[in-house]
């Protein structure tokens, strides 16, 4: 009785401490998960870095170098994009200042839009072509509406920046103590779920790495190819457009919004050949990437069907935000793995009677098995869900 009371007390106390720890860290859980995702994804690179002749296994220097490299890879493009955004904002201010005297004339290509060109031009003139409307816009800027929005945006950017620095700090310590942490995680899984828990943990790790490779690498490839397409088509700022396309391409089929809009702008400006060629080129790139390359990288590594990968991406994005892009497919991969093990265990224990096996059975062996209990025996391709 005493031992049972002690076990219950330890469980209750541990659960309470776990809730308190989660409550203390709840504001930083997403940042911690981001650090773990980055560490799992880049761990092979970290191992190669430690094995290089320059470091000779110096863990601290290797962790610091790779952490700084990841920070630079993410912050440098963002900084460039923000600087360009500030320049465009200054140009917009100059345009509004000039429009206070004469209004904002409609662009030449607006009237060339089929069917709605004249209506669009009239709507533009009624909304922006009149100097009075431009003065009202400048008055709104002066009354503080835009200033308040700018302050909120600056506050959010500052908050995200410090959050990213915290993620990098956690990532550094994960690199530094990653081997010991992985041993603790595997030992905990073995204690809680047995040997099969270790396999699920390794499967989840492979799913995270495959998802990041499939989303990020394919997205960057799409952004690079379409960025070249933007440059050849004559669009201004092709690097920014390519980077924006690469970010959107991490979400399946979302890159069509960028290159489709660019194609429509080119066609509306009278560059029909360039716009049509860019549209066809973008469709070909997206179809090849989203239907062949990405499913092989994500689903092929963890034997996860593409439909479940796609549902995991969209469901994770809706429920967890950007972090769900990687958590959703990981959860789907672990669930599919558990389901396959469950079916395999039932098959081994004889709970499921496969129809192919029953055809070779004697009448005495078939006694008591109804037609509803006959299950077609799956082929290897069916059991692997088409992978």
List keywords for this structure.
387 residues, mainly alpha, two-stranded parallel sheet, 2 strands, 81% helix, 1% strand, disordered C terminus
Give a summary of the structure in a few sentences:
The chain has 387 residues and is an all-alpha fold.
Describe this structure in words.
With 387 residues, the chain is mainly alpha-helical. The chain has helices at 2-25, 29-51, 59-102, 117-129, 131-142, 145-176, 178-193, 195-233, 238-249, 256-268, 272-302, 306-320, 324-349, 355-359, 363-366, 380-383, and strands at 353-354, 374-375. It has a two-stranded parallel sheet with strand order 1-2. Helix 2 crosses helix 6, helix 10 packs antiparallel against helix 11 (272-302) and helix 12 (306-320) packs across helix 13. The radius of gyration is 29 Å and the shape is elongated. The two termini are 53 Å apart. The model is unreliable at 357-387 (pLDDT under 50).
> How many separate helices?
16
Strand content: under 5%
Report the helical percentage: over 70%
Mean pLDDT: 76
Q: What is the terminal separation in angstroms?
A: 53 Å
Uncertain residue segments? 357-387
Gross morphology is elongated
* Strand order in space, largest sheet: 1-2
Total beta strands: 2
Instruction: Report the major sheet.
Output: 2 strands, parallel
Q: Nearest-angstrom radius of gyration? A: 29 Å
Order of helices and strands: HHHHHHHHHHHHHEHHEH
Structural class: mainly alpha
């Amino acid at each position: 009785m005493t031992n049972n009371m002690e076990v219950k007390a330890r469980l209750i106390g541990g659960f309470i401490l776990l809730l308190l720890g989660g409550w203390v860290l709840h504001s930083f859980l997403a940042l911690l998960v981001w650090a773990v995702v980055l560490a799992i994804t880049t761990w092979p690179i970290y191992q190669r870095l430690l094995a290089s002749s320059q470091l000779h296994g110096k863990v601290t220097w290797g962790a610091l170098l790779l952490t700084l490299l990841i920070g630079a890879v993410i912050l440098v493009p963002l900084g460039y994009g923000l600087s360009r955004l500030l320049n465009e904002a200054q140009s917009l201010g100059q345009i509004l200042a000039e429009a206070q005297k004469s209004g904002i004339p409609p662009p030449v290509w607006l009237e060339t839009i089929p069917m709605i060109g004249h209506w669009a031009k009239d709507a533009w003139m009624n909304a922006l072509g009149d100097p009075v409307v431009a003065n009202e816009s400048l008055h709104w800027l002066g009354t503080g509406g835009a200033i308040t929005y700018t302050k909120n945006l600056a506050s959010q950017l500052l908050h995200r920046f410090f959050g990213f620095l915290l993620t990098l700090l956690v990532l550094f310590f994960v690199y530094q103590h990653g081997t010991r942490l992985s041993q603790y995680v595997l030992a905990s899984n073995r204690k809680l779920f047995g040997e099969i828990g270790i396999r699920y943990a390794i499967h989840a790790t492979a799913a995270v790495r495959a998802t990041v490779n499939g989303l990020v690498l394919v997205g960057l490839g799409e952004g690079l190819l379409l960025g070249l397409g933007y440059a050849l088509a004559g669009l201004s700022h092709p690097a920014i457009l390519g980077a924006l396309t690469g970010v959107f391409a991490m979400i399946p089929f979302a890159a069509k919004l960028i290159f489709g809009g660019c194609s429509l702008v080119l066609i509306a400006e009278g560059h029909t050949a360039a716009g049509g060629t860019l549209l066809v080129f973008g469709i070909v790139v997206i179809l090849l990437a989203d239907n062949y390359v990405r499913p092989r990288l994500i689903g092929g590594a963890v034997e996860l069907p593409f439909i479940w990968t796609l549902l995991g991406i969209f469901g994770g994005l809706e429920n967890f935000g950007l972090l769900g892009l990687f958590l959703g497919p990981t959860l789907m991969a672990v669930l599919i793995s558990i389901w396959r093990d469950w079916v395999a265990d039932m098959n081994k224990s004889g709970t499921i009677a496969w129809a192919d096996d029953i055809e070779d059975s004697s009448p005495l062996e078939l006694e008591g098995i109804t037609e509803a209990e006959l299950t077609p025996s799956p082929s290897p391709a069916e059991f692997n869900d088409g992978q």
